[in-house]
Amino acid sequence: MSFISFQRKMEETGITDRRGTTDILQINIGKLCNQACHHCHVEAGPKRKENMERATADRILELLQNSPSIKTVDITGGAPEMNPHFRTLVMGARKLNKEVIDRCNLTVFYEPGQEETPYFLKEYQVHLVASLPCYSKDNVEKQRGQGVFNKSIEALKLLNRLGYGPASRQHQLDLVYNPTGPFLPPDQKKLEQSYKKELKELFGIQFNRLFTITNMPIKRFLNDLERNGQWEHYMNLLANHFNPHAAQSIMCRNLVSVAWNGELFDCDFNQMLELPLGKGRTDLWQISSFNELDGKPITFANHCYACTAGAGSSCTGALDK
After folding, report:
1. What angle do CA 84, 175, 106 make, to 5 degrees?
2. Which CATH architecture has domain 20-232+250-298?
């Protein structure tokens, strides 16, 4: 290993390790998913049992009322829609006038019992961030499984028919790209132009923005790296492309991550590694407002290099635009 620790890198660069004001609440509602993607840092899949209970969802909404700085509720999984309390969270957050994001894999719409989900999302003006790692069928199915591409395309067409896309202010549809291997994403703006051109010409599909997200060297992707002898190469790539401008804008500064069991973390990646908040392990029942976390230290580890490499990476794509 030829790189220094991420914590030391931040100290040498003089960048603070403190949280700012929390304005995004990200909820990992569970690990149940209809897919089992090769890069998945959650290790989600159809056989996972971890799923948020109603009491935890109710507690989130209670705390949300007491956290005035939070503007956005970002719901992820697994496939969030497969949790029986997903709609409770969406309706409760929208009642509090929060923007709600659903991180959707698109194919979930074709699971039993999910037929009305796209119409529910439209009714509550849920902002969709949908996974489509490429506009090429081969690349998508290599990463996400056979049959995923065609279902994803049909789901995007349906969303366009429902009014999702650039023609609507209330129904935003963004797509997510992540690399198929151990390399950094290309320029986000240029790739977005390619996506829009190809999807429009080939399928008549339109969307708002493309987010490029760097693969995190943890869980399934880490296993792939180690199996192929590429871990050290990938970590050196990330460390050698450390970007101090991106490091100042990493998502853990203004986001708090809630696990399916109510535990709190600095980000979804730390959650999967069970790295407690910089102020120590905390859950929903130990705080009275999410804003109690403002100004607290952030827990860093070497996987954080993925968020600061190149143009940077966050749940809303590149950081250094």
Report:
1. 35
2. Alpha-Beta Barrel (3.20)
